[in-house]
Amino acid sequence: MGGRLEGKVALITGSGRGQGEAEARLFAEEGARVVVSDIDRHAAEAVASSIGERAIAISLDVTDANAWSGAITSTTTAFGGLDILVNNAGIGIPPRLIEEETTEEHRLIIDINLHGVWLGMRSAIPVMTERGGGSIVNISSIDGLVGVAGMTSYTASKFAVTGMTKSVALEVGRRGIRVNSIHPGVIETPMVALAPPEVHLRLGEILDRQAIPRMGTPKEVAYLALFLASDESSYCTGSSFVIDGGHIAGPYRDDFTR
Ligand SMILES: NC(=O)c1ccc[n+]([C@@H]2O[C@H](COP(=O)([O-])OP(=O)(O)OC[C@H]3O[C@@H](n4cnc5c(N)ncnc54)[C@H](O)[C@@H]3O)[C@@H](O)[C@H]2O)c1
What spacing in Å lies between the alpha carbon of 26 and ligand 1's midpoint? Predict the structure, then answer.
């Protein structure tokens, strides 16, 4: 076990599976005490109990302001404070043209991916201020930096995370609180595994155009989150960190790829 987060307390949303789960496990290995939170309480409990005494599980729907108050209270009661918030919970919707997206889907994705992150930051900042600092890591996407046909509402939610990260970083820097965003490419999690068949049909072709032609792993993203959560990134704030195997580095040219 390393000690890169020794003495820190971390709350990670949507950590019952996927990237959030990998972050919870890695943060605990690195010495943090971790609040594993998810809308799926059973999933959160399974992850926390397999981590052991460094973790507790709570049920948290990130769209619910009252549930956020409860989550912050549970965290400070269990572990005495809060140093790290990873706003990881998020959903995708099946890709389609804007005129085929429904208002319900649009509102749901904005509610979870945008409003959930806003509520998380708003809820955590008072306790971090009281503690004299903290690190907030918001999980956006490469779709929060470039447009993607078929993904209008998802890109709207993820660009919003990119922007909020920078605004809030400017507000709270003097209080010792840093705020950064992570922009993963295609990562091998249940979100991708459960995507509709048309996504899987095109996945090989999409990955082939990357400099590193494979999916990323949740653990690879967790190592970036660990860096941003830890004091090693003490001069980083308001920044966007891409982890995508070169997906958005530029257009692929097969005549100049060896
Ligand atoms: N997997 C990818 O390729 C990829 C790429 C870029 C960005 N992302 C982003 O990374 C984050 C994590 O994605 P993942 O791939 O691990 O997804 P995942 O679907 O495997 O896991 C997401 C978790 O969030 C939880 N969740 C969903 N709605 C919630 C809510 N309202 N409140 C609390 N928890 C909720 C789910 O129960 C689940 O445990 C998301 O924000 C996603 O948009 C994923």
Answer: 17
Host domain of residue 42: 9-239
Q: What residue's CA is closest to ligand 1, atom 41? A: 90
- List Cβ neighbours of 214 (8 Å cut-off, separation of 6 or more): 207, 245
**pLDDT tens figures, 47-88:** 999 999 999 999 999 999 999 999 999 999 999 999 999 999
Per the structure block, which two tokens stand in for 66? 């009252």
Domain count, the chain: 1
Question: Does residue 185 contact residue 174 with C-beta atoms inside 8 Å?
Answer: no
**C-alpha of residue 174 to centroid of ligand 1, in Å:** 31
Cβ of residue 88 lying under 6 Å from some atom of ligand 1: yes
22 neighbors 72 (Cβ within 8 angstroms): no
For residue 58, the CA-to-ligand 1 centroid distance in Å is: 16
Catalytic residue status for 252: no
Q: What is the CATH number of the domain that holds 77?
A: 3.40.50.720
Q: What is the pTM of this model?
A: 0.98
Cβ–ligand 1 contact at 210 (below 6 Å): no
pLDDT of residue 146: 98
What local confidence, expressed as pLDDT, does residue 258 receive? 84
